[in-house]
Amino acid sequence: MTVSELDEIRAIERKWQDRWFSDKIFEPQSTGSKKYFLTTPYPYTSGPQHIGHTRTYNVADIHARFMRMNGYNVLWPMAWHITGTPILAISSCIERCEGATIALYENYVRLYEEDESRVEEIVNSFVNPWNIANYFAAKIIPDFQKMGFSIDWSRQFTTGDPIYNQFIRWQYEKLMELGLIVSGQHPILYCTIDKNAVGEDDIAGGDVDKISIDEYIGIKFSFEDGYIVTATLRPETVFAVTNLWVAPSETYVKAYVDGEKWIISPESASKLRYQQHDVNIIEEFRGSALLGGHCVSPVGSKIPILPASFVDVNYGTGIVMSVPAHAPYDWAALNDLRQQRGINADNDLIRLTNDIEAIKPISLIKIEGYSDFPAVELCERFDVRSQRDNETLSRITNLLYKEEFYNGTLKPIAQQFEGRLVRDVKEDIVEFLKARNAASTIYETSAKGLCRCGGSVVVAIEPDQYFLNYGDPKWKAKAFELLDQLKIVPDAYRAQFVQTFHWLDKRPCVRRRGLGTTFPFSKDHWIIEPLSDSVIYMALYTIIKHLRECDPEQLTPAFFDFIFLGKGDLTHVSQQTGLPQEMLRAARHEFTYWYPNDHRHTAVAHISNHLSFFLFHHAIIFPKACWPKIVTLNELLIREGVKMSKSRGNVIPIATVPEVYSADLVRLCLVSIADLNSTVDWRENEVEMVKKRLLRFWHAANSDIVSGQPQYDKELSFPSRWILAATNAMVSRASEAAHQFSYRKYVTEAFFEQLNRVEEYRSMVLDSGERRHVLLDLLNVWLRVLAPVIPHIAEELWERVHKDGYISLAAFPQYDNLYAETLVQKRFLDGVIGDVSNIQAAIKRETASVFIYLAAAWKYKLCEVVYGLDGRSLKQIMARAKEDPELRTHLKDIARIAPGLVKLLAQEPAADIVLGFEAESETLLATKEYLSRRFGKDVSIFVENSDIYDPANRARRALPAKPAIYVE
RNA sequence: GCGGAGGUAGCCAAGUGGUCAACGGCGGUGGGCUCAAGAUCCACUCUCACAGGAGUUCGCGGGUUCGAAUCCCUCCCUCCGCACCA
After folding, report:
1. What is the pLDDT of residue A366?
2. If DSSP states are collapsed to H, E and C, what string results for A11-71?
């Protein structure tokens, strides 16, 4: 068992992959009564596939193969997703000659290209995003083939194809007709230089430090002829404001904002312009000019304006409202002012003394376990010295905000909002303030970000965004109806679907740029975004072959209505589209044959988006008969305990699988390491273990084939009958596991445990014609059970045992109860072996002989009697024994052994414990030599009676199912 | 905070009312093989017994039951999702 055997397996894998592909054995026709239409996500073609993606496809392939062998006409097609901005972002990185991206893509391309000069050339070509999409789409095909996936390659398309665009336009026509597309304004991340929306991929480091949009409330404090505007995440605290904070040395502006005079920072002014506000600056001044002034809060309080160093003019409006009772920063800043007073006799401070002196924290929110002034309390507890203790302050700020938000209730000072939970009342207070023209929504990025082009990332309001209205009641109701009849495996994920379905609401479905389909309902240039154009494409697989010859212009909404919904009249549609009637008829037939999508398998990460959209769209666009039936899910894959990621450099691309591992090895590992609902941790030492087992199987199977004897006329011995029965039982358990998608259990049963059993059988029956025959016979069944998991090896061995045709297309073995009683016999034997081992281990002496004493016949009779009794007290047993003429002669012994017997029979199911004398005796006699070898001692088998060698007087302890043992 | 999943021997991990001291693997110990190492094979790997026995275990603490890792309750801890990101 060496490298050369693994090399041989690798060569075999290539051989069968080529044959499957050239014989097109996985390209089903739309005929046959049992069909199974399986889909998995089409890969996003921004780079090579790795072993993490492969987990999903691997499960799908194993199931596809299992179903195929169970007589289903299985369709598992594949296409390519290129829609969206990531590919665009990569292109522009390469165009700008960004070293890291170029190096990454050169490494990707090197996986497939030997010629180094080609590598550079190809990467250079990636300045055109289509080249990225096409290059990787083309390379993922051989990647998948290297894994042995039984994909139908004849139905490929990309989401950028004109045919696809027409299909998606039809989908959106339907949604528009149903009134499910709405428009409105929407905040987005936006680059100030590109003048365009930015996604995660466009932001420098955006994949690591994600930037989100925070919704602040701008609160207007009346001041002179206008307002000082502060920005806050906690509008409810407006009732407890004691003062405002400004940065005295920074510049502020007075500006007309939508016709009102606002005092804010200039940075804020320019950001507001992106948020659909009309902003004109009137004058600039230093923050210190505001100090000592007083403004009036929306709830009528007179509020002084004071200086604080923690104020950042880049954040919000650059002016902060101070709530010292509930905001640690504010309390700390207030303390700083008080302590500086008198020490550094700054003019400003002296001027402000009275104001500072007068400030008392105002208690607004009541929370369990805190005083009236939790911010004060926390500052003291965490020993905050000044407003510059940034780390501590932000930590306790988060802590307190969370606590107050979820568990805090408002005090009487909150007037009509008294007594309500902060989390419930927040929105109402915003409404209240807005109604008095005292508040305005201001969006801010959660962190500073730079676009890859160098521009700042800000929040802009898109005034005319289109949304899919998942919140529409009729849509939601349909979706729930679909969900109710959908099988989900593992079913534990159902709750996540339910939750997602509940909170799904309006969702933007178009973007200003990216690859994809143009949105048909706007004069502006909009592209339907990736998660919105990838939800019903499974339908396209069914008919794509018929569309290749068409002019995409012919694929009108009427065409798709006819094919998918059966709407319209054949002749009419034919005339309208110019498409031949037979083509329309064939496509319609193919769609109705394959749809619905019986089974979709994907990763759990898709539940809250793709899968839910998939179900929503199917529910509303297609009739019930076309609704998907089963969704199965798997968790993700990590490597040596950590996530795989580009930045860690620990990704295993599929392209390297054939040289580093082997397809069948990876396939076996991926399902054996973990169940669907837990993470696979790809650890080399586990892989190594699986590799050894696989090679051992390969080695043994080959030698069984070489030495195999097709014919054997004599009666089979107990061990042979047992291994055949055990194999039968294995087929049954494996089949059941597969139907439940428990493929870990499947390989445990069908590979690992079966391998152990077969090895045990080998040691039970030394080389003989019988064994050679049985092993060959067994292989015929076993290989077919293994074929879904390790198809290459199974296919090769199948050929070597001279079976006709592909094992991939062979019938999954049937199973029956032949020799089932031997399974109980084997359990009995294992019990005896266990007992002998126990005793040997206990006495720690060299021994030469083992004596096994089967119980006397009357004990078996007693056993039946006891088994039939309702109660099993000694008294009852003795009473019954007295009635029996034979047992009556053994009363003394019965009294002695009855407790042990009762205990034995307490094991469930009792009927399987006691085989009867004949069977026990046959089992031991048939395996006597094996036992002798196994113990390394002479083994003698006796039946309990007076004429036997029994120096320690052990035989009398013998019970049915539990012979007595003596070693010497 | 809400919703979901989960906490099992040194580690990973199966097991959801009785055949469970608890599958399997890794690691560890001893032994066979070998000049030796690796590979491989066998045994052991909670505690105590040392003739097949007993005791204590499955996050903590309670409860239901003849019987609980498994069912119920309180608590502690970990992970995932909470949207416009594919």
Report:
1. 85
2. HHHHHHHHHHHHCCCCCCCCCCCCEEEEECCCCECCCCCEHHHHHHHHHHHHHHHHHHHCC
- Architecture category of domain A700-819 in CATH: Orthogonal Bundle (1.10)
For B50, nearest residue by CA–C1' is: A842
pLDDT at A918: 86
pLDDT in tens, A718-772: 899 999 999 998 999 899 899 989 898 899 889 988 988 888 888 888 878 999 9
Q: Which pLDDT score, from 0 to 100, does residue A870 have?
A: 62
For strand B, the positions having any atom within 7 A of a protein Cβ are 1, 3-6, 12-15, 18-19, 23-27, 39-41, 43-44, 49-52, 80-86
Q: Is the peptide bond before A490 cis (omega within 30 degrees of 0)?
A: yes
Q: Is the CB of A499 under 7 A from strand B?
A: yes
From residues 930-959 of A, list those within 7 angstroms of strand B by Cβ: 952, 954, 957
Q: Stated in angstroms, how far is A839 CA from B29 C1'? A: 21
Task: List where CATH 3.40.50.620 sits in chain A.
Answer: 41-158
The pair of structure tokens assigned to A756 is 């152990």
Say which CATH class A41-158 falls into.
alpha beta
The CATH code of domain A213-445 reads: 3.90.740.10
Give pLDDT, residue A681.
Answer: 86
The answer to whether the C-beta of A966 is closer than 7 A to strand B is: yes
Protein-nucleic contacts, chain A 817-856 to strand B, CB < 7 Å: 832, 835, 837-839, 841-844
> How does the average pLDDT of chain A come out, rounded?
88
What's the Å distance between residue A496 CA and nucleotide B81 C1'?
A: 8
Handedness of CA A399, A402, A403, A408 (dihedral sign): positive
CATH 1.10.730.10 domain span(s) along chain A = 700-819
Per-residue pLDDT of A317-341, as tens digits, reads 999 999 999 998 899 999 888 887 5
Asked if A493 contacts A603 with a C-beta cutoff of 8 angstroms, the reply is no
Chain A 141-180 contacts with nucleic strand B (CB below 7 A): none
pLDDT at A346: 56
Closest to A550 in 3D by CA, of A586, A578, A582, A520 = A578
* DSSP H stretches of helix in A801-851: 821-843
Which ipTM score applies to this complex? 0.90
Using only the alpha carbons of chain A, give its radius of gyration.
38
A605 touches strand B (CB under 7 A): yes
pLDDT beneath 70, residues of chain A: 1-3, 200-201, 204-210, 341-350, 844-846, 869-872, 903, 905-914, 946
* Strand B contact with A446 (CB < 7 A): no
Q: Please, where in chain A does CATH 3.90.740.10 lie?
A: 213-445
Token pair recorded at residue A839: 């005793």
| Nucleic strand B within 7 A of Cβ A760 | no
